[in-house]
Amino acid sequence: MEVKRTCCFTGHRPQRLPFQFDEQHPDCVWLKERLRQEMVRLITEEEVTCFITGLALGIDMICAELVLELKETHPQVTLECAIPYEEQAARWTVPHRERYYDIIVRSDYENQLQGYYTSDCMKKQSHYMVEKSGHVLAVWDGDVRSKTGQTVRYARELGRELTIIRPVTLEIIREKKTEPALN
């Protein structure tokens, strides 16, 4: 898997999205279409062939399912599930767990990063995904303190190409690759 041909996703959990868990809501339908269009652009213009999802509820799952749909028309595309720890979905509702495992079964690669939960496992997951990716597709409201905001900051530090979609306005902001920041 080439870094320049890989894209990972980051985005808010349903509670931070305007439509929350209602994926039939018009705002969610529009957001999914924007995400799909951006993924097609990455595939056709940037030659991205691998997508990585962390499979959290919300944007991660939405993006994973969109990639699985796009594989029908773009068979060169693969999906990796970067699972932070074994029991990630253990406390979720049955429908959410079923959706989670359905995505894993249909993905091309499953990579469990560690066996059990630790206080830094989500940060490790974000770093893993950004380090393996030349592109980061983020659904982010601009809050720098959120996990999504921290992932966006790390992507900028590493000089990754970044596409941000604002969840309320659906504005797309593209930041081209830069030299990694010196610490």
From TrEMBL:
Q: Please report a single Pfam family linked to this protein.
A: YpsA
The record's section on InterPro entries has: YspA
| Source organism superkingdom | Bacteria
The UniProt transmembrane annotation reads none
Gene3D superfamilies, alphabetized: 3.40.50.450
Record's PANTHER family?
UPF0398 PROTEIN SPR0331, UPF0398 PROTEIN YPSA
UniProt name for this protein: DUF1273 family protein
From which organism does this entry originate? [Clostridium] clostridioforme 90A8
